[in-house]
Design a protein that fits this description.
Shape: globular
Number of strands: 0
Distance between the termini: 28 Å
Radius of gyration: 21 Å
Number of helices: 14
Structural class: mainly alpha
Strand content: under 5%
Oligomer: single chain
Mean pLDDT: 86
Largest sheet: none
Length: 396
């Protein structure tokens, strides 16, 4: 069916665009945090409390969005959240106190969490119809969007105020949402041919039956959520502590130290771009086990190596190893329990990203930062072990 194939291709492009837009807007906000901190007069501790608004809004909304997707469909929810995300990113520079900043970041976090669940749910449906493991390609778009957003933000930071910069992101976001959203709303969520249907009733169309997950399915969803947590923990930890480790423990030049997370992020992007091919050749279980093992080895090198270049190599290997584990975990949870499964796995993953930085901080105080960073390797190894244990559930 050539027409059907073209529709699915257009749908894939629209979804990829939303993933990239999400990464672009979020990275654009992150690079302006220092300027907004100065504007609001926040101390490090009060800024940290305000930034919890993003986390709180995202985590609370993620579970709620799963229900919205089941009721209204993941495509309309994606578009609505895209509009809210684009509008809310312009709010932080309009605040002049940490309390006001925390309040608007709660709204921004809610939109961010909502769109993550919605477009991941839509992607899970598309993966099931295409019967190809393309989930990593969507997350590669998110990573690419983030790299472009951060790079552009760095370029304009000296010439544009946070207000103008983030308002520009709002305009770009609304334009992209208008174009990609129109394409997305044109199609209903695709239904796999093997989807179960209820007994037909004379005179009424057949519809897919929404099954309530049984206890075993719910346990499996939580297990995949734990895999997401283990890998996202590493991403959060490296984002906040990788640069400091290179500069403080290895005496790296600030410019080289700043490249630490860039090496990790670039390697993760490359790994996700290759993810579909990797999954088609190795399958989900081998990809998770190999990726977790590679990340564990890479992070041991990155945290304990005596030289800067060896540490940078370790960060890059860690990025490649972790690249596809989170997308696999979300896709499997969604395949098992629909939008609710995506919501659970995303919430676990986001929780892991939030848990990483403070956990590393506490362990660094108790032991040292290099020793604390080995916890990333430990959790990557745990993800590999859990992935092997769920090999029957992944069916490959």
């Amino acid at each position: 069916m050539p027409g059907h194939s073209k529709d699915l291709t257009r749908l894939r492009i629209a979804l990829t665009t939303f993933f990239a837009l999400d990464g672009f807007i979020f990275a654009g906000w992150v690079v302006r945090i220092p300027a907004i901190k100065e504007q609001t007069g926040a101390s490090a501790s009060t800024l940290g409390l305000a930034l919890l608004g993003v986390s709180a809004g995202a985590v609370v909304t993620m579970m709620f969005t799963g229900r919205l997707c089941r009721r209204y469909g993941s495509h309309p929810v994606t578009v609505v959240c895209g509009i809210l995300l684009s509008l809310s990113v312009a709010l932080p520079p309009l605040t002049h106190s940490t309390w006001a900043l925390g309040a608007v970041l709660l709204v921004f976090g809610a939109a961010y969490g909502g769109i993550n669940v919605a477009f991941n749910s839509a992607a899970v449906d598309l993966v099931a119809v295409l019967r190809r493991p393309i989930m990593p390609s969507f997350h590669a778009a998110f990573s690419l969007g983030g790299m472009i957003g951060a790079g552009l933000g760095g370029l304009v930071a000296g010439s544009l105020s946070p207000t103008r910069h983030l308002l520009g992101l709002t305009v770009i976001g609304l334009l992209v949402t208008a174009v990609a959203g129109r394409a997305l709303l044109r199609y209903d969520s695709p239904v796999p041919q093997s989807a179960p249907v209820p007994q037909s009733v004379p005179g009424q169309p057949e519809e897919r039956a929404p099954r309530r997950p049984d206890a075993r399915t719910r346990r499996l969803v939580v297990v995949f959520g734990l895999i997401a947590l283990c890998t996202a923990y590493g991403e959060g930890a490296l984002a906040d502590w990788g640069t400091l480790h290179l500069e403080q423990d290895l005496d790296a030049h600030p410019g080289i130290a700043a490249a630490g997370y860039s090496c990790f992020a670039l390697a993760m992007t490359i790994g996700r771009l290759c993810g579909t091919t990797l999954l088609e050749r190795l399958g989900r279980t081998r990809t998770v086990v190999a990726g977790g093992t590679m990340a564990a080895v890479g992070m041991l090198v990155g945290s304990l190596a005596p030289s800067v270049w060896a540490a940078l190599l370790g960060f890059a290997v860690t990025g490649i190893g972790l690249a596809n584990i989170f997308p696999i975990a979300v896709e499997r949870a969604g395949a098992l329990a629909g939008p609710s499964g995506v919501a659970v796995a995303s919430t676990f993953g986001y929780g892991g990203m939030l848990l990483g930085p403070p956990a590393i901080g506490f362990m660094a105080d108790w032991f040292s930062l290099p020793i604390a960073l080995t916890s990333v390797a430990a959790l990557a190894a745990v993800a590999a072990v859990i992935g092997y244990g769920t090999r029957r559930a992944t069916a490959d």
